[in-house]
Amino acid sequence: MTELTPQVDKTPGRIRQMFGEIAPWYDFLNHFLSLNIDQRWRRRVVRLTAPELRPGRPILDVCTGTGDLALAYHRHCGAAVPIVACDFCHPMLVRAAQKALNRGAVIPWVEADAQRLPFSVNTFQLVTVAFGLRNISDPDLGIAEMVRVLQPGGRLAILEFATPRMPLLRRVYLAYLRYILPLIGQCLARNRHAAYRYLPESVLQFPEYDALLERLRRQGLVEERYVPLSGGIAVLYLARKPAVSAAHVQLPSQADAAPVQSCSTICSDVYH
Ligand SMILES: C[S@@+](CC[C@H](N)C(=O)[O-])C[C@H]1O[C@@H](n2cnc3c(N)ncnc32)[C@H](O)[C@@H]1O
């Protein structure tokens, strides 16, 4: 089985600083390097998950960064579904908050570590994470925290890069990922942490498809499946927290932990 033990340096301090350094360039490079397909992927996540959303019940976007997925939900659902978003990188959240202000979206942007979410057990009907799980130092702990704050019967949606399985597309994509993307990314968003060299390394080392589904099953999630996007360059993983927790499911020790204290919120405080 693929281990999630990171070989690239994913210490929280390094990751936080790295995203802090590229925050001014993050949106531009995301859209430029993906030919704006990243926005289409986020809209797809919203379209696939929104039909089941119940009005008035909150959803959480973890590792929200500059908030594009949270804002996509806001665009789709309006005020009917309260959205909370969190990330541990302050400069990314400042940009998210500015974008929300421009669009008239009221979203609490909570500064917190995904490995110690400052929310109570069984709070959210949907927890999402887009291109974030791969960056968490201990992704298993991150998933456990997301499961903890999910309501019974609630869903987890993970959008993450993968490698296409079709041989030709795979070859072209890997060449782009390994050589072209780091060159352009590092040139434009100069940063001390080689963020755009870290990106391909972290993608290539992260479990994908069935290996990631297996990690979700081990956290007690059910109905797990994946939806390849754009030939498998990105993959949406979906799973559900059982409505009644199965006796055999051994959730990690943090699963019942009380909400965490050390976090700040750019808007209002909620769901603590
Ligand atoms: C590649 S960005 C993705 C941002 C956004 N979700 C998107 O779709 O563009 C990854 C984000 O994960 C955040 N992140 C990484 N590890 C984290 C952790 N342990 N706790 C909270 N945020 C984390 C980073 O600060 C960064 O903003």
Class from helix and strand fractions = alpha/beta
Radius of gyration: 17 Å
The main pleated sheet reads as: 8 strands, mixed
How many helices? The count is 8
Broad CATH class: Alpha Beta
Count of extended strands: 8
- Give the helix proportion (percent range): 40-55%
Low-pLDDT sequence parts: 1-6, 247-262
- Please, what is the average pLDDT? 88
Please list the strands of the largest sheet in the order they lie side by side.
6-7-5-4-1-2-3-8
Look up the CATH topology: Rossmann fold
Fourth-level CATH superfamily: Vaccinia Virus protein VP39
Instruction: Please state roughly what percent of the residues sit in beta strands, choosing from under 5%, 5-15%, 15-25%, 25-35%, 35-45% or over 45%.
Output: 15-25%
CATH architecture: 3-Layer(aba) Sandwich
Summed up, the domain count is 1
Which descriptor suits the 3D outline?
Answer: globular
Bound molecules: S-adenosylmethionine
Note the run of SSEs as H and E.
HHEHEHEEHEHHHEEE
| Termini separation | 36 Å
